Amino acid sequence: MPVDVLIVDDSAAIRKILQRVLAQANLGVGKVYEAADGREAMDAVKQQPVGLILSDINMPNMDGLQFLGELRSHEQWKHVPVLMISTEGSQTKVMEAVQLGAQGFVRKPFTADQIKEKLAGIL
Asked: pTM of whole model > 0.90?
């Protein structure tokens, strides 16, 4: 059964690149939704259930770590896999993302193979 995905990044170009990677990865992805920040992402998951979230960390309004914390505070989204994709590579931020429940972390700039490899382990 295809998994619907939410891509959360303030860069429209990165969202498009990730959509292309998902389409080419042949991982059984269904519909792909987009959000430009954590607030939009919370609105999106309330409207459309998704089985996977790819999120940046550094975004305006609500960053990726705030979004992840908010997401995990709701029972219905506690177990939705989240892969963080960010230029933020500090060990502190990576550990914080993992403690908040992220299943993985990919540093920008990324390759399509890095994304596929991480997603294969999650899906």
From this structure: yes
Residue type, 86: S
Tell me, what DSSP letter sits at residue 49? -
Give the domain extent around 77: 15-60+69-122
Q: Return d(Cα 49, Cα 47) in angstroms, integer.
A: 7
Q: Is residue 10 part of a domain?
A: no
H/E element, 110: none
Task: Tell me whether residue 80 is in a domain.
Answer: yes
Structure tokens that stand for 21 in this block? 């990677």
Structure tokens given for 121: 């382990």
Q: How far apart are the C-alpha atoms of 123 and 46, rounded to whole Å?
A: 22
Q: How do residues 70-95 score in pLDDT, each as one tens digit?
A: 999 999 999 999 999 988 778 898 89
My answer on whether omega of the bond before 109 falls inside 30° of 0, hence cis, is yes
Quote the number of domains for the chain: 1
In a domain, 3, yes or no: no
